[in-house]
Amino acid sequence: MAMRFEHEFTVPVPVEQAWSVLLDVERIAPCLPGAALEKAEGDSFTGRMKVKVGPITVTYRGEAAFENVDENARTLALRASGREARGSGTANATVTARLRPDDAGGPGRPGAEGTAGTAGSEEVAAGSASSVESGGTAGSATRVTVETSFKVTGRPAQFGRGMMGEVGAKLIDRFAANLAALLEAGETGPATADTVPLPPIPAPESAVPAQAPPGRTASTPEANGQGTAGTPRTDGQGRAGTPEANGQATAYRAADGRKESPRHLTAVPSPTETPEGSEASREPERADTPETAGASENLAPVTELSPAGAERAAGRDTHPAGTSRTSLTADEEALDLMEIAGIPLLRRAAPLLGAVAGLAVAAWLTRRALRRR
Amino acid sequence: MIPAPFDYIRPASVEDACRVLADAETAGDEVKVLAGGQSLLPLLRLRLAYPSALVDLGRLPELRGVADRGDHVYIGALTTHDEVMRSGVVREHVPLVALATATVADPAVRHRGTFGGSMAHADPAGDLPAVALALDCVFVVRSSDGEREIPAAEFFVDYLEPALEPGEVLLGVRVPKLGSGWGFHYEKFHRTAQAWATVGVAAAVRRGDGGTIEEARIGLTNMGPTPVRARVTEVALRGVAPSPSGSNGSDPLRDACAQADAGTSPPADLHARPDYRRHLARVLTRRAVGAALG
Amino acid sequence: MTEQLDAGLVAGRIAESGQVSEPSAEREMGRARRRKEDARLVTGRTMWTDNIQLPGMLYVAFLRSPMAHARITGVDVSAARSLPGVVAAYSGRDLAEEQGSLPCAWPVTEDIVIPDHPPMAVDEVRYPGEAVACVVATDRYRAADALEAIAVDYEPLDPVLDMTEALAEGAPKVHEAGNRAFTWKFAGGDIDAAFRDAPVVIDRAYVQQRLIPTAMEPRAVVATTDGDGFTLYSATQIPHVLRVMLAMTTGIPEHKLRVVAPDVGGGFGSKLQVTAEEVLALLLARRLGRPVKWTESRSEGNLTVHHGRDQLQRIAVAADRDGRIRGVRVELLADMGAYLMLVTPGVPLLGAFMYNGIYKMDAYDFTCTGVFTTKMPTDAYRGAGRPEATFAIERAVDELAHELGMDPVEVRRRNWITREEFPYTTIAGLTYDSGDYEAATEKALAMFGYDGLRAEQADRRERHDPVQLGIGVSTYTEMCGLAPSRVLGSLSYGAGGWEHAAVRLLPTGKVEVVTGTSPHGQGHETAWSQIAADALGVPFEDVSVLHGDTSVAHRGMDTYGSRSLVVGGVAVLAACEKVKERARELAAHLMEASADDVEFDGGRFRVRGTDEGRTIQELALAAFAAHDLPGGFEPRLDAEATFDPDNFSFPHGTHLCAVEVDTETGRCAIRSYVAVDDVGSVVNPLIVEGQVHGGIAQGVGQALFEEAVHDADGNLVTTTMADYLIPSAADLPEFTTDRTETPATSNPLGVKGVGEAGTIASTPAVVNAIADALRPYGVRDVRMPCTPERIWRALAEAEVTVPAQSRAAVPSTSEIAPEGGAR
């Protein structure tokens, strides 16, 4: 099982400061919940990591090392590989981080990966302005892009219920959140997993007022188009009628196994994970359902493709990355954004994903509308 | 399929159990409570869980049984599914519990698996957590510090994580009687008879004198890391006059259930991806509500 | 002791004790006997392999690769060795010198690539679950615990998961020699002529998903040695083949190796194998000098029992406008998995002669390429090649019917071999000996209520009922009863297809039948008893059947391919006939008559025209006493026989399935299922019924539920039964079954195989029904298993969003044109 996640956020410290923190593994390691550094020698480290979900416990022991540390480009990669302490399974992770000075717009500005084409740019801008305060000053902020991929083998990977997806999304989410907090804290001291508040599960009660009434739409037609344009015609047709096109079922790869959660991360299948003719591309995620297709009384669908996923998909016209998506309807995504609006960390992180920010506006509008009632 | 070694402790009383759990907590040992074992033992055998000890509550009669307590039915945590679904008290006063319990796995599992065990395992794919949520059940737990009550809305914290502190034992669950005028249904969608719910909908609906819906409670199974209430739909159903879809194709129930998936974050697994689960939630909620209305 | 042992005296004593039976008059053939073996099987009072306990026995646990594909850079078993109770721990390297290579007995082409297949991986693992180390301990718990102490270092390599990609230039290689194992071609008639200017061409691609055979009894092995010879107990279908293969593989001389298949709880082809665990158990017993046992867990089995199916099919059917089929062209990619096991490459070719189905045509062309991937090897699974073939042709014929606006039954009628045309040599070169497709189909249609269901279907379409009705037709035949040794030889199979039986009359008149078939749930003990009882005129209860132990049943070719009755059962009959002839000779001698004047009736030999007679039981005792025998007559009434048929067996039938598809949720429920099978003469209708029911269930499993799924890294994610779904009785309708009887002409019993028929027939019946239900929505196909989600997505992606009953029943010319030019 492979998973890949991307996080992007801005911290109000200069790049140099963030960079030095990033190189300090003894401070970075605790950002990963359950991780413990045992030994550090130069650029390599040994440690263990305990993953715990309810009664399930998997402990990995392994090594990690910095790779491709490029001080000029402010990029680095941390590669870790581990083996289950008590089983035969393995886990491999690569964390790639990139820092860039964020002079212009503060945290609200969509990142390069965060734009869903030109769609809804107005909303995005509005979202930045209206729903989020500016968190940094020109020249003193750093935009951080963290890309995490990991692969798991062995027993934890051998379940169709997507256990590791559930766990993995959570873990990486917390890691990014903790990392952001650590970088922001900068020289003032190390952050630990315990000190950073995590996005709570939205309480059901509070869900009510944030819901959009039927008929309210929050999507952009272009985004929607992108979601469906990639739909390949397959079964029994033309080229698709060849065995090649029908492909081999390598279903439920990677990001697909990830829990679809209202968190601010983007699941992106790595290039090797979307072979031609894969199940994923033959059965693409639909933004839509047969029942509600084009029905005006229903919520217009939001594209299932995440911005980054859509971008990738566009470059692979016949086989869109059907596995990449954040399948949230506008109002519920919004709901979650509003929920976490009180948490400074995520308030900064969230709007950087353009489409997501767009949704935030819709949510904000929705909530206002409901309040007026 | 052989678990790693563990100690086996069978306390003589609930107090005993609490003490054992508290001691383990102090010592930093990882101890698990064993009820019917239908969820825990497979994890042990697959070596995905390595508790140092199991505390078996199976021989504590005080945790077993169903009681009519006026405004609610009390179900002891160790009551088996089979006992629950056959209980006259449950069937009469909280029929939704009986309906959902009857869909749990298969007879062999229902004879061993327990009501409290299903709840404490907090598997969002389990059928009973959604029912508990829909009915606003109250969980009665005890530790060596004493008893406390946890409302269902706070009990299911996350995937496989209940709001039980280490050292706490679930004693039982208070299932409120909803009074007269209510109809119930549990709509389970699964691929084979023994499979977990792909999506499940627990519905309780009260119709007013005029025939319109006055109140609805809907719990969803396997639509997120925890069971969830379909609050938007509950609100939307208020005041709806259910009528069979007319020749013009209108179906007020369906319209009201069109956002049954709002606020959920359904998982992706082998049996369904999120968009399909969302769709199922909408369709099945309509069906569950319709069936609850009779 | 002066009393002479007198035959009459002994007979009298035995008679007093109530042990001698009277000859039996009632015919056993065709009687719905309850299975005599079931009581011990279902109560567990029998010897399953895992029940075997031997003094000093040790337990083996295997450490299995978590990786689909990796180089092994180090295995450290030292920590495991030092744990209490652990007797030994080995890596593949430790065993490399003596473990040899697992055999492939079916090199289908001259240039086939048969990679070395070490039972325990040494340098490289090529599928998830491949054994990389083992622990031998004093109990199974310690063995399991000690696995955690073994450290293996892997250097991950790219997994090879997709057959098409595997064949592409520059693809990662499973083996040095490349990912193409073989390409096998077969043709009859002029295929180009058949397709040239064909008015209608149906060109379709189907995916035969990978299945995991799920026998009720997991695999288990016990190996023991007395210092001289070895005994291997295994939950296997093939004790005899296994013995030969193990002798060749391990170097243990054949005469020093006894293989026993105790009672075995199902196989479905999955136990038609020489497994790594069997070889390794023998090696460990040899090294350690103590008995060793290994029993797999279900999740271990899902990983490492050989898998089934896994083919990408492309089938093109050329036809005239009146529905007459001109030719069929088939291209297959067959997933071999990582290695070629016992008959891996042969499985798709068992279907090669079946893509023409029951139909007449001018030309046929078949190509199959076997492809290596980093998955568990595939091999025989119930039907082995024939379900795939039947699925493709029956799906395509339904599509043809739709293209022509014809009833699917009518299209079949126009093409099938008529009853007058038997024996009929097909375009694939097989001679179907007998059959009556008309009779089976008529019966099935009537039982099904075909016309009524079609009317209801039309009505639901009219009403836009969210629950649509679909009707699926499958008129199948299959070649089974493997089979003529000559033919198997011509297909490069490593062995013959004969079967052996021995029949022994015991002194008390009881009968022992020794069979070379190896039942694992089929009820051979009952059926063979019925055959022997009729042939010898003894009561059913007086027959016992011995099997599965190479020291008891020393010759045999075992059980697979629906061969047991049509080859092994016939051998039992032949042996009985030989015994009878010996008994006739003895009877004639005792009655002082010419053997020609002695007739046999109901267990009694009688001098024609007199009351003078001897029962077969009396003769058994007389032979035992040997006081008065004809000159040169050996004192026994035993005989052996070996039968090698000169043709395959061709059961056939018509299966009809009605499904209700909930278009809102995608759920598909089978509403009714009718199967009329023609398996020739029937020995035991109850057993036939059971085989048909189970077979249909397994075929429905492929259609609706089962699929082995790997993720993008090659992890198998269906390792438990929570994820690999097999249907239970609760998920299936009541099957309505009946039979027609067209006796086979290729054997004296007139019987045909039945073990695989239900599985072969039912999968296309179900999927045809689903396609039929969804066609008005513009859905052309749903990939198996047709899960609710897949059906829902197919509906969502279809062109037509409302049922279009107005859609022309007879398509326009443009619609008949070959699809998408993919010809």
Low-confidence stretches of chain A: 105-138, 189-373
Briefly, what CATH class of the largest domain in chain C? Alpha Beta
- The CATH superfamily of the largest domain in chain C turns out to be Aldehyde oxidase/xanthine dehydrogenase, molybdopterin binding domain
Most extensive interface? A-C, 56 and 68 residues
The fold-level CATH name of the domain at 2-103 and 139-188 in chain A is: Alpha-D-Glucose-1,6-Bisphosphate, Chain A, domain 4
Biased composition (Basic and acidic residues) (chain A): 279-289
Biased composition (Low complexity) (chain A): 112-142
Organism (chain A): Streptosporangium sandarakinum
Keywords (chain A): Membrane, Transmembrane, Transmembrane helix
Write out key terms for the chains shown.
heterotrimer, B: 294 residues, alpha+beta, Uridine Diphospho-n-acetylenolpyruvylglucosamine Reductase, domain 2, Uridine Diphospho-n-acetylenolpyruvylglucosamine Reductase, domain 3, Enolase-like, domain 1, 3 domains, five-stranded antiparallel β-sheet, 32% helix, globular, C: 823 residues, Aldehyde Oxidoreductase, domain 3, Aldehyde Oxidoreductase, domain 4, disordered N terminus
How does this model look, in words?
The complex is a heterotrimer of chains A (373), B (294) and C (823). In chain A, 30% of the residues lie in helices and 21% in strands. Chain A has 373 residues and is α+β, with helices and mostly antiparallel strands. Chain A has a domain at 2-103 and 139-188: 2-Layer Sandwich (Alpha-D-Glucose-1,6-Bisphosphate, Chain A, domain 4), CATH 3.30.530. An 8-stranded antiparallel beta sheet of chain A has the order 2-3-4-5-6-7-1-8, sandwiched between helices. In chain A, strand 5 (75-84) and strand 6 (90-101) form a beta hairpin. The longest helix of chain A has 23 residues, at 163-185. Chain A starts with a strand and ends with a helix. The model of chain A is unreliable at 105-138 and 189-373 (pLDDT under 50). With 294 residues, chain B is of the alpha+beta class. Chain B folds into 3 domains: 7-56, Uridine Diphospho-n-acetylenolpyruvylglucosamine Reductase, domain 2 (2-Layer Sandwich), CATH 3.30.43; 61-176, Uridine Diphospho-n-acetylenolpyruvylglucosamine Reductase, domain 3 (2-Layer Sandwich); 182-293, Enolase-like, domain 1. Helix content of chain B is 32%, strand content 25%. Chain B is built from 12 helices and 14 strands. By secondary structure, chain C is α+β, with helices and mostly antiparallel strands. Chain C has 3 domains: 49-157 and 219-295, Alpha-Beta Complex (Aldehyde Oxidoreductase, domain 3); 383-479 and 647-808, 2-Layer Sandwich (Aldehyde Oxidoreductase, domain 4), CATH 3.30.365.10; 498-643, Aldehyde oxidase/xanthine dehydrogenase, molybdopterin binding domain (Aldehyde Oxidoreductase, domain 4, 2-Layer Sandwich), CATH 3.30.365.10. In chain C, 30% of the residues lie in helices and 22% in strands. Chain C contains 23 helices and 28 strands. The longest helix of chain C has 27 residues, at 564-590. Residues 1-5 and 803-823 of chain C have low confidence and may be disordered. Chains in contact: A-B, A-C, B-C.
